């Protein structure tokens, strides 16, 4: 396994931003004196972190590096700040465009990653789970599978928020990200709208702990997918909104790749 951490200059954000890349490039097992070379170009998972995270947070809180090596897959982890991976026109912070298209172009130009849709996947935890479904659908031509781990499917709720000292319940906070919340439903930031208007929906994998405060939001979205005859898998595992749950089910998603 090879780990790269650095920064890239991107047009979508009009600045430099950090990114971590895990490559299964030297899968050497010293104990049994064997070497397994993963054929290039690599299948690739673009993995999105949650609120208050950064590109190194999966490296610190999960065993994703070892699992990527064992499964022969490249993993690209961008820094999404608190953007929910949507496009903020006023700030010229087009995070959706960045993770949906430009990041693929940048990383494929630098590393031996597959350009094929069937070899390219997007997933995320919490805020990143929302970012994965939003951009996996909007840029459906780039991704064949979407993984949502404890996804922050909150767009139906935040429209009812008012001023609050807790930033996670503050209407002002979410308006700084999504813009006018009254116009969110039926826009390209509404996952249900994207489902209804996506001509080729990628395979969808969902997992959420039954004790997670986001469980009902995820269960409701899964029921919605079923009502639209969308093929999806929903694992209702034991657990809360924790890194332990994330680590377990990101691995389960990678197994399906």
How would you explain this protein's 3D organization?
α2 runs parallel beside α8 (243-255). The mean pLDDT is 94. β1 and β2 form a beta hairpin. The protein is built from 8 helices and 12 strands. The protein is α/β, with parallel strands linked by helices. The chain has a single domain, classed as Rossmann fold (3-Layer(aba) Sandwich). The protein starts with a strand and ends with a helix. The protein has helices at 57-61, 64-71, 95-110, 127-138, 171-178, 191-197, 215-227, 243-255; strands spanning 2-10, 15-23, 28-29, 34-35, 44-48, 74-78, 87-88, 93-94, 120-125, 145-149, 203-207, 232-235.
Sequence-ordered SSE layout with sheet pairings:
Layout: E1 2-10, E2 15-23, E3 28-29, E4 34-35, E5 44-48, H1 57-61, H2 64-71, E6 74-78, E7 87-88, E8 93-94, H3 95-110, E9 120-125, H4 127-138, E10 145-149, H5 171-178, H6 191-197, E11 203-207, H7 215-227, E12 232-235, H8 243-255
Parallel strand pairs: 5-6, 5-9, 9-10, 10-11, 11-12
Antiparallel strand pairs: 1-2, 2-6, 3-4, 7-8
Helix pairs in contact: 2-8, 3-4
């Amino acid at each position: 396994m090879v780990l790269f951490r650095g920064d890239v200059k991107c047009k979508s954000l009009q600045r430099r931003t950090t990114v971590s890349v895990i490559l299964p490039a030297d899968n050497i097992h010293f104990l049994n004196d064997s070497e397994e070379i993963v054929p290039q170009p690599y299948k690739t998972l673009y993995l999105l972190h949650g609120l208050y995270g950064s590109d190194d947070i999966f490296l610190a809180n999960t065993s994703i590096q070892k699992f990527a090596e064992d499964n022969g897959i490249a993993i690209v982890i961008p820094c999404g700040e608190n953007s929910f991976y949507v496009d903020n026109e006023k700030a010229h912070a087009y995070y959706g465009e960045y993770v949906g298209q430009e990041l693929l172009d940048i990383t494929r130009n630098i590393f031996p990653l597959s350009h094929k849709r069937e070899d390219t996947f997007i997933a995320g935890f919490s805020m990143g789970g929302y970012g994965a479904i939003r951009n996996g659908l909007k840029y459906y031509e780039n991704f064949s599978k979407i993984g949502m781990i404890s996804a922050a499917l909150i767009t139906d709720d935040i429209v009812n928020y008012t001023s609050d000292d807790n930033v996670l319940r503050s209407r002002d906070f979410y308006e700084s990200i999504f813009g006018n919340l009254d116009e969110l439903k039926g826009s390209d930031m509404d996952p249900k709208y994207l489902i209804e208007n996506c001509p080729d929906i990628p395979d969808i994998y969902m997992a959420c702990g039954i004790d997670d405060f986001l469980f009902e939001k995820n269960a409701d979205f899964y029921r919605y997918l079923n009502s639209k005859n969308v093929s999806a898998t929903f694992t209702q595992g034991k657990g809360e909104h924790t890194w332990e749950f994330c680590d377990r089910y990101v691995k389960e998603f990678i197994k399906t790749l």
